Amino acid sequence: MSEIENEILKGFVTGKNLPRFKYRWFGILEVDIEGEIYQLYMTGNIAQWFLNGDAVEIEILKPPTRNEQNKYVLKFDDYMLWKIYDEEKFLVWKPFKKTFELPRVNPVTGRSLYTYKIQAREAVFESDFEAIAELEQFHYASQKSFVAIWRCERCGEFIESNTKPICPNCRTNEYVHILEIKDSTPASRFMILELVERSPYEPRIISYVRVDPPIPRMNRRLSDGTVVKNIREKVFPSDWFHPVFWPEQNLKEKLTMLRSKYKVSIAMSMLWEEAKWDAIKESNTASARISRVVVHPDYRSDGLGKASVNAALEWIKERRIPEMRRRKKIVETIAMMARFNPFFEHVGFKYLWDTASGRPVLFYPLSNDAKDYIEEFLKTDSEAKEHKGRLCVSRFGKTTPLDSPIILKNVMKVFENTLSIEDLPEELRNVLEAFGVRHRVMQRFVLKNVDLEINPGEIVVIVGASGAGKTTLIRLIYYSAIGLKDKYYMPTLGRIIMPLNVHVNAIIPNEVEPNFGEKTILEYIFSKTKDVHVAIEVLNKSGLSDAVLYRAKFDELSTGQKERAKIAAILAEKPNLVLIDEFAAHLDVLTAMRVASKISKLVRDSKITLVVATHRPEVIRALAPDKIIFVGYGTVRLAKKEEFEEYLK
């Protein structure tokens, strides 16, 4: 057998063996090479796409063994496999895998804040699909909604669950395996992105992309309500999208019967189990459809959606996903969320039209002729000429910036309090008197002779130890901005000169904070913006990109999520001056940098003046401030050039 190691052999597919309930991560492809049968171990979701007679080439990496049927056996890592279609050869096994780095750069300074090392690969293990189910539930899970179907191989029980369940009959999950992911089909292909280098608290798999066959029929709804049938064929060559396959229509009677016995999700799964073989035989288009992109909520505002789609496009083009037959010319996606999040457009997808049901459709060209067809449509179609291929356009806009600087002139703040032991129990008075404490008036300068100027649109960071006066400085600026005439909130001496058009909002913990009441997060932010697109844009930029969190109430959020919700709340009112004490205090290092970087860009783009107090160097780097102010025991001064640069390294 060693004599055929490292050889490249040509043959034809003669069959496949796919265990029905484990096929996604295991299958056997049989290939005839000059009368000898080779059994190739691979994932079933790849093996199922081969048809008898398909021409292939095998590069043998390790010597094969013989099984009881005297057939050669090549295990998962023992070979590479190419498919030959239309006289072109392309790799289909080993599975697609690509490792890349994703640096996150401060948009102001251009310096790198941190770098992700990521591996994008096709899902091949059962644990991959379990992780996909876990990611999926960030979108849809609730007490009454399940994102996956599982099956116990011992008793045959089907179970809906978001995590690996215990079989109600066998009282164990030892024999339970994941069968389907919500809304996918047995012929769907999945790519995952996993962190190659990660902190102990970070998830392994941070996103997934699903590519579904086949391409369904599509009609277009115009703005006046008119429906244009088969719109794709009027814009692109019709054979790019044909043949179509629609099991719900082709097998109507079968579906009706199954729905009378099972829940809809299980009925559809069983229908597709029967229909998929016809779909696999018939599907052979020059187009692919990205049906799902799900990114872990903690990573959504950090470019991982864009990175996921880019990796999927490379996978589709290189491996001709999903069918592994015709060369792909175009990729489409149909997604309502594309109205609210522009990462498809950031990749290069162009919005062309809405389906008859009102869902937006975006296309990405993989060939020059596809690019030409898209550009021609955008130039000639009456509605497309208006939107120009853009769907998700920022509506937050710009504020009216401060019309003059904020000026602090010789500002002093003295705090005075009286210490008395008269009302204490005798035993406690005796202890304090032993230390010389009886009756005393305490006076101290918190701020002394502060001369400071904050220009419109600047980002200013206040740095100092706990108790040094950071909060006092922010408090004086805030109450001066709202015009409160109260000795406690005013300078002891000096004055603060505010722009006439100041519109301030602030977070001063336990003193000035948004009050969400019983409203959900989205309801509260919408009540401020009066525009749902702006509300979601603000939530996204504040680091709350999970739709499940949109419908949560404030008290249901974690401490870190509450902090992000507060930031969203104050930005939603579009102030031109924002003050935040202890910015990002409850966020982990990576999340704090993500949020700081996003907020920095948002306030700069919107001409908002931002003043924050923080002691965290990584947050200061991500904010890329225009000024750093040191506060300590009465003194206030601007950072010197070398100190400033040290903080921003």
What's this, in brief?
By secondary structure, the chain is α+β, with helices and mostly antiparallel strands. The longest helix has 19 residues, at 264-282.
Question: Which features would summarize this protein structure in a list?
Answer:
alpha+beta, 649 residues
Strand and helix layout:
Elements: E1 8-17, E2 27-33, E3 36-42, H1 44-47, E4 55-60, E5 65-66, E6 72-74, E7 79-85, E8 88-93, E9 97-105, E10 112-122, H2 126-140, E11 148-152, E12 158-161, E13 176-181, E14 189-195, E15 205-211, E16 220-221, E17 227-228, H3 231-235, H4 247-250, H5 252-259, H6 264-282, E18 287-295, H7 304-319, E19 330-334, H8 343-347, E20 350-355, E21 360-365, H9 368-380, H10 384-387, E22 406-420, H11 426-434, E23 439-454, E24 459-463, H12 470-482, E25 493-497, E26 504-507, H13 521-529, H14 532-541, H15 547-550, H16 559-572, E27 577-580, H17 589-606, E28 609-613, H18 617-623, E29 627-632, E30 635-638, H19 641-647
Parallel strand pairs: 3-6, 18-19, 24-28, 24-29, 26-27, 27-28
Antiparallel strand pairs: 1-2, 1-4, 2-3, 4-7, 5-6, 7-8, 9-10, 10-14, 11-12, 11-13, 14-15, 15-18, 16-17, 16-20, 19-21, 20-21, 22-23, 22-25, 29-30
Helix pairs in contact: 5-6, 13-14, 13-16, 14-16, 17-18
